[in-house]
Amino acid sequence: xxxxxxxxxxxxxxxxxxxxxxxxxxxxxxxxxxxxxxxxxxxxxxxxxxxxxxxxxxxxxxxxxxxxxxxxxxxxxxxxxxxxxxxxxxxxxxxxxxxxxxxxxxxxxxxxxxxxxxxxxxxxxxxxxxxxxxxxxxxxxxxxxxxxxxxxxxxxxxxxxxxxxxxxxxxxxxxxxxxxxxxxxxxxxxxxxxxxxxxxxxxxxxxxxxxxxxxxxxxxxxxxxxxxxxxxxx
Amino acid sequence: xxxxxxxxxxxxxxxxxxxxxxxxxxxxxxxxxxxxxxxxxxxxxxxxxxxxxxxxxxxxxxxxxxxxxxxxxxxxxxxxxxxxxxxxxxxxxxxxxxxxxxxxxxxxxxxxxxxxxxxxxxxxxxxxxxxxxxxxxxxxxxxxxxxxxxxxxxxxxxxxxxxxxxxxxxxxxxxxxxxxxxxxxxxxxxxxxxxxxxxxxxxxxxxxxxxxxxxxxxxxxxxxxxxxxxxxxxxxxxxxxxxxxxxxxxxxxxxxxxxxxxxxxxxxx
Lengths: 234, 269
Fold this sequence. Notes:
The complex is a heterodimer of chains A (234) and B (269). In chain A, 76% of the residues lie in helices and 0% in strands. Chain A contains ten helices and no strands. Chain A is globular. Chain B folds into two domains: 3-101 and 218-266, Periplasmic binding protein-like II (D-Maltodextrin-Binding Protein, domain 2, 3-Layer(aba) Sandwich), CATH 3.40.190; 103-215, D-Maltodextrin-Binding Protein, domain 2 (3-Layer(aba) Sandwich). In chain B, the strands form two sheets. In chain B, strands 1, 2, 3, 4, 5, 6, 7, 8, 9 and 12 form a ten-stranded mixed β-sheet that branches. A two-stranded antiparallel sheet of chain B has the order 10-11. In chain B, helix 7 links the parallel strand 5 and strand 6. Classes of the chains: A mainly alpha (234), B alpha/beta (269).
């Protein structure tokens, strides 16, 4: 129990002293996961909507697979991305292994199915409401997808935040493809893992509390920017 | 949200992140090199002297050798002579330069239920642990420490090549994580002296046995073969090697003590 309180104290010390190493780690954590969320959303949101408005032969199978991919094990994703980016692998010449870019690639693969799947569920409900209207306006597929995405934007935010949550707390994949290199690819989760390995539990706990606080802060910021949960706007 | 702007910003950050790197080299090192705190002493000095950023990949010896074989790092610093020689024989490295040594020690609960404190050899100590069926945590991750431990078990009677009984717990983790497990289970474990001294969660564990010459632990530096992997930074790897084997490193390593105990002994020639 004592170590948990020590961890809280350590977290306070780290935050209020604006420890430069901590700021660097936090900045990289945000850079990697926010980039991954933006890219994954650019793929996942339209994909989710596309699956709603289109009817094709293996649609149900595609959706089932997409839902299953939400549980993609990060450590396997990390291993596959590692083997692809390794010098011995097909994309070795790009020299991306052990860089933040490699970490973003791994996280995009982990997050995209999650965002696509949640946005698909959300938009499906909206489509039931909008179906007759959009058909009678003879909107094109592209216009239908755009209208659904725009009108469902607040609910889709949840999909993106879920993706952010999965990414920021992820350690298995980024440890393998990033290598946890100090001042280069060390993020909060890999730093926590490292400090635990050293037996520095209080410091590791401190970093853990910083990570939780960061996740809360990002969620609050996005909610307040998008003005959700206010009386005047639904 | 303006998607185009955001994407442009993300791309800008990514590109900036790539060009911000100056002279740097990737070095795969064993967990003990980092967990002992020695890397925190050496790296800033290397940066100051050579203007060279050493990017450490802290892994077990097995994985370090694997990274070297694939050409994903420029050099490796490991401690498993047999595996290193096989690495050179396969043509994956140019040569092997010994840098420093320390020793392995046997750690266990202070009550010492297997009574290994007074024995003469490491094998005898393990024999006692096996005889008492006392919990023993093994790294089990193909690291240098694990390879050494597996070698010692081969001399122990009645357990086969490697013990498979319930009291033998292979955790498949780094030195620190394994020490955490041993601390939680109050079990015996073999560790390198440096990692043990620096470890912050000792609990009831204490150093019970050391000093057998078989526990000698040599660290060596091996640059990755540029003929096999033309992209490796050959000149920088040589520069780093000469620094690590030089007088400045000798002084820093020889002065690095925790609680008055020397962690590594410099022996580069």
